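Final report, closing paragraph on structural work. Over the funding period we assembled a curated collection of sequence-structure pairs, and we close with a single example.
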Amino acid sequence: MNAPVHTRCSIVPPYLLSRLAGLEDPRHHNAAAAARRALVQLDPIHSARAAAPRDPSRGAGTAVVLALRRTISDARGTETLPGEAVRREGDPPVGDAAADEAYDGLGATYGLFQEVYGRSSIDDAGLPLDATVHYGQRYDNAFWDGFRMVFGDGDGEIFGRFTASLTVIGHELAHGFTQYTSNLRYQGQSGALNESVSDVFGVLVEQRVRGESADTAGWLVGEGIFTDQVQGRALRSLKAPGTAYDDDVLGKDPQPATMADYVETTSDNGGVHINSGIPNHAFYIAATRLGGYAWERAGQIWYDAATGGNVPEDCTFSRFADVTVDAAKARFGEGSPEVEAVGYAWREVGVL
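Its predicted structure, as stored:
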């Protein structure tokens, strides 16, 4: 089969970068310059792309579990990938916060997929996990390019280093998981689902490491990457989309929580980072309605849906909702609390 062209998926939405790029206040000179550089790689048609392999026969839970293999490389302020390898599997910490955070984050994400869902790496065939840190000069983003995770250090005014948030690491690696399963097209509702799946598994990675239940977790994506100059806690909130930040410089978090506020737009590939708030909130509702650890029942249902072969590349919210309900029935039985919780969640956000 032909390998698809895979879009570079980044954690910071283009509408935030555009806002920062237009800043004229000299206090934010570095942030504006950094955002302009980051936008070069995020033009409206995502011209920066990589041909990424995908085998749709993988992901059915039949893989032989292989050993975790991580390699962390350092771009040393350049935009040349992969950079120089500085830490490989089994090596001790190197004393560089970004390199060691990336190493630990890859391990935590691998652990969720392997230990909870029985998946051997993101491709279910033991794919080595690679990451590059210190990418570019004051680079305001982190992204999955189809082969590896790449992290900037931030501009120091608005954003700090992107490895500081475990949810960012889990989010970006989950784009690789989607690449090897449903390969959701990065446009419109399917693109918003692509972003949402990454947000869901990103928060589940963090919750599992912290031992947080659905009721006690913060449900934030990107907590810790803003500097103390920003009025906001994170990039997105699954618990309350639209409330992650409200800042004089960044503006207000634009995410909707329900279909009543769905944003029709041609920017951001049809609002993939904005409208992901709707399926995000549906997962939050289902997980908290079920209680306990979110990665166990709600997370298992979302995992089954993503890997079951019933999510098309151009999937809509309503189709994905139906697939998750069917996945809950298949695993837990018709009329089970899990089926009720998933159906209730999608109705609450106006999808079903």
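The first strand starts at residue 5 and ends at 7. Residues 188-210 form the longest helix (23 residues). We thank the funder for supporting this effort.
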